[in-house]
Known about the structure:
Elements: H1 2-5, E1 24-33, H2 39-48, E2 61-63, H3 67-71, E3 75-78, E4 84-86, H4 93-98, E5 101-103, H5 108-115, E6 119-128, H6 135-142, E7 156-158, E8 161-164, H7 174-184, E9 190-194, E10 209-213, E11 219-224, E12 227-232, H8 243-251, E13 258-261, H9 270-275, E14 279-283, H10 287-299, E15 306-309, H11 313-324, E16 330-333, H12 336-340, E17 350-353, E18 360-363, H13 382-385, E19 396-403, H14 410-424, E20 439-447, E21 450-458, H15 461-464
Parallel strand pairs: 8-9, 13-14, 13-18, 14-15, 18-19
Antiparallel strand pairs: 1-3, 1-6, 2-3, 4-5, 7-8, 9-10, 11-12, 16-17, 19-21, 20-21
Amino acid sequence: MADDMFSAPVHRGMRALNRASFQRTVPLKAARVFDNKNIFKVRSELESSKDALQQDRLGSVHPDPDPERAKAGKKCILLRPEVASHCASASTKEQDASNARTPLPHSPTVGELVKQELIAVIPFDLRLDYSYWTYHDIISAILPEDEQGEIPSGFSQVGHIAHLNLRDDYLKYKHLIAEILIDKNPGVRTVINKIDDVGEENEFRTFKYELLAGPDDLNVTMSEENCTFKFDYSKVYWNSRLNTEHRRLVATFKEGEAVCDVMAGIGPFAVPAGKKSVFVWANDLNPDSYSSLDDAVKRNKVSDYVRPFNDDGRAFIRTATARLAEVDHKVDVVPKRARKESLAKPDVGRALHQPKTFQHFVLNLPASALTFLPSFIGLYPSALRHQLPEQFPMPFVHVYCFSTKSDDNVAEGNLICEELSRQLGHEMKPGKLEDGDVKVWDVRDVAPKKRMFCASFALPREVAFREV
């Protein structure tokens, strides 16, 4: 019953949001504190005895309901509802039939505080309005009872944009849902609903959307790993839920290494890597992604380390490898301590030389990245090998893909390796990287029966040196 007292008023079938309809007066009792200097003492005792109101998003201390006392700054402490309970003495059929109830009184603590003349117990009408209830409270009070199996609550937030993917059952409530989301999420100003799968419209991984509420402004600024990105969400790909994966992979790159980011997007791998002094050649086919990537490189001051490109990924794997062998590039690194010292003192630093070969290739286009692997066959033809150091190490390839999902991912790992073997023309087995096998990482679930993976492996010499 106490929970019912604080629940949102029910308005089943509401289609146009009427915030004024969500008001409720909850009849309570309160401890009027005669002297404000006793508020802390009284509240502590009432909280210890469980007499003070304990309700989500509601404090127990409120202005006195008497206008004159409230004007003078007097306070009262709300008491928990005297919840009705079955009479302990109920034994007759008549009492059982009438479901007799009596109030469950407050503890003796309240009476003791009254006796000490610290408080008086008074009626208090607690008025709740739309601002009190959560999104889930409001939407639950609106949707018909038979449509509350999976109330839409999850969304991706990109800057000020809430990105929904509503099921067909809830499309008739889409504008209502969007308005409530904006009301209950202070950082959200625009709500959109995806109306196709990412990549269906074009190869740039953009998607069609409909505006549900707020301004049609999809220009956002995002911060990730101490890097700032500005982009138009309608024109480029961005997924905030991949932040953990971005961090995991970048953590495997070492200072001074060279990375080829084949489908770099706006730079969630490349720019943080550049921040840790990793040389990155970052490419994306989408001109808008390239533009935002170029902006991010400059905005985050990593131009010494990150070079943006706007090429076809399959060709870029080979052209970047050949061009890197010909480029001489170094960055003078000044220790932070030296920067803080007087300019009159000479800076003692060191130089990082860009390697002639890539230590890592990143292919983050899970819908089709596996089909880019044939570009690694014959990656180092004999003419190119003559320009490279002897016995240079083979690069690691990190390729993202989709598969089914299971508890142990064993079947999925085998299927992924079978496809790797087919694309590279070389047997690839799941196992440990240090053993020369493929390490398959579970990245995230993307659908009830679909999971995203990252398969990492050292490029086999037989593949890289094969004559084609």
